[in-house]
Design brief:
With 125 residues, this protein is mostly helical. The protein has five helices and no strands.
């Protein structure tokens, strides 16, 4: 049963005796407390998890508004492609939409590449 638990949870036994002391400013402590609360964890579990489980994951720091705009563009491009696909299913005439399909596919590809590039830059890869 224990083997199905994440590694950091298996280590959360009440037999802990070691301590790590880290000095932080009052602003840093408040930020850690907010993040722990948002994650539904106490500060010890939050810091333990960040250090032991999440440490290898890339940290993404990004402007959410820019990301929303990029996703909106991708969704609109995908919607146009969906409308063209629907038209082919109704008319059974793919030649009729061929020029529009090429443009729609290009737009979806460009929008997806923009999102991908934005996230890669945010990860500092």
């Amino acid at each position: 049963m224990l083997s199905s638990l994440p590694e950091w949870r298996m280590m959360s036994s009440p037999q802990r005796s070691g301590r790590i002391y880290v000095r932080v400013s009052s602003q840093e402590r408040a930020a850690i407390e907010r993040r722990a609360a948002a994650a539904g964890l106490n500060m010890s579990d939050y810091l333990r998890r960040r250090a032991l489980v999440d440490g290898d994951r890339p940290v993404i720091s990004t402007d959410p508004e820019t990301l929303k705009l990029l996703y909106r563009d991708l969704a609109l491009a995908g919607s146009n492609l969906n409308q063209l696909t629907h038209e082919v299913h109704i008319t059974h005439d793919p030649g009729r939409i061929s020029p529009f399909l090429s443009a729609a596919l290009t737009r979806v590809g460009s929008a997806a590449e923009a999102v991908s590039s934005f996230l890669a830059d945010a990860r500092n890869v």
